[in-house]
Design a protein that fits this description.
Radius of gyration: 43 Å
Oligomer: single chain
Length: 389
């Protein structure tokens, strides 16, 4: 071995990756890294067939590749193979073959790179993609991926929701295809602004019919580029129900507005924290409902006459303990400082862990005044009768 060969051996021994030299199909030089990874000694490797540490199922492929390189045929400089150690452990590897001159004869310098971690990472990515595909196909939501509006992929629920075949939607501009014209500008702006909060649009099916859709989307990295993944939910039924609820509420408010007195719901506590009061609140108490709801200006307990407040609370709680409705009369002080008598009837309602009172309060001031006048006259008559008797 001459000095240049010694220097060459020092050079390949300094390399972190396994390196060896093949000449006439035999291994003629190896570095220490190859010996460590293959578990063979340098003596065992030198002079042996280069396929010694190639897995049996890959040996024919390696031999075919080597023959093509020797014959000077076009081949990829790097190919994937499977190495096997002396103890039988297999290692996926990338093999790079470079023609050189060794001892003034043609030879091949071979670099071997362990790609186990890459393979494991790739496997995890594939498993993640399969898991994502399974989940996206299993969900009832329509899911699609697009870049600047051009659909890249979608799940079966999306296709079913809109009535398209996959080949009819992938590659198409989703704004022009599945969004009603009235909302196209809105969704285009939301894409540019990268809006992540759910928003409502009117979607368009293949057959031209439309439905109300809720879209929730965000920008993600997909195949090395930024794209937008979106979930679509058909909320038409929810909107119809909401319309019915609003209409019912409007009718109820109209009805309550035409009735004397005030309907309410409040938390069951001494502060009477109101969460609903009908429009009759203004006429009865002098306050707008919003002034009392959540005690924004004052609490209903402060409106109850000081001398009656404790009595009102005690009567209501006593009825609740007996699981009965409560009914009582007491005095209130209006916003204008007027004293009124009211009659109240209500019950306890349990919602989850919270207790609410719901009931109706009516103005009975006139009745009370009439009763007072009648009582005074009765006392006068009794006095006169007793005197003349």
């Amino acid at each position: 071995m001459n000095y240049s060969e010694i220097d060459y051996k020092k050079l390949i021994n300094a390399m972190k990756d396994p390196v060896f030299v093949i000449q006439d199909g035999k291994i003629v030089m190896v570095n220490s890294t190859l010996c460590k990874i293959s578990e063979y000694s340098e003596v065992e490797l030198l002079g042996s067939d280069f396929r010694l540490f190639i897995a049996e199922e890959k040996r024919e492929d390696a031999l075919d590749y080597y023959k093509k390189r020797v014959a000077g045929k076009d081949c990829l400089p790097v190919y994937e193979s499977l190495a096997v150690t002396k103890t039988g452990k297999t290692i996926p590897v990338d093999v790079e073959v470079i023609p050189i001159q060794f001892e003034n004869k043609p030879a091949f310098q071979v670099f071997v790179q362990d790609i186990s971690r890459y393979k494991e990472a790739l496997k995890k990515v594939q498993e993640s993609e399969e898991r994502f595909r399974f989940l996206s196909q299993s969900t009832f939501e329509g899911i699609f991926i697009h870049k600047n509006g051009i659909v890249l992929d979608c799940n079966d629920s999306f296709l079913k929701m809109y009535g398209f075949l996959k080949e009819e939607i992938v590659g198409k501009d989703m704004i022009e295809t599945v969004i009603c014209e009235s909302d196209r500008k809105k969704i285009a702006q939301n894409i540019v602004k990268k809006v992540a909060k759910p928003y409502i649009i009117r979607a368009q099916k293949k057959d031209g019919s439309s439905f109300i859709a809720e879209i929730e989307a965000r920008n993600v990295e997909y195949d090395g580029e930024e794209v937008r993944i979106a979930a679509v939910r058909d909320v038409s039924e929810r909107f119809e129900m909401q319309k019915e609820i609003e209409e019912t509420k409007r009718k109820l408010e109209t009805l309550m507005g035409n009735l004397p007195g005030m309907a309410y719901t409040c938390l069951n506590n001494p502060l009477w924290e109101m969460n609903y009061m009908s429009a009759g609140c203004k006429e009865l108490l002098g306050y707008e409902p919003e002034e009392l709801i959540n005690n924004s200006v004052t609490s209903y307990s402060e409106i109850i006459h000081d001398d009656d407040r404790e009595m009102v609370w005690d009567i209501i709680q006593a009825a609740i303990k007996k699981n009965e409705r409560f009914e009582l009369e007491y005095r209130i002080i209006t916003k204008e400082g007027k004293q009124k008598w009211v009659w109240e009837k209500g019950k306890l309602v349990q919602t989850g862990e919270q207790e609410f009172l719901e009931g109706f309060i009516n103005d009975i001031t006139l009745r009370k005044k009439t009763e007072e006048i009648l009582q005074q006259r009765e006392e006068q008559y009794r006095t006169v009768f007793n005197t003349t008797g």
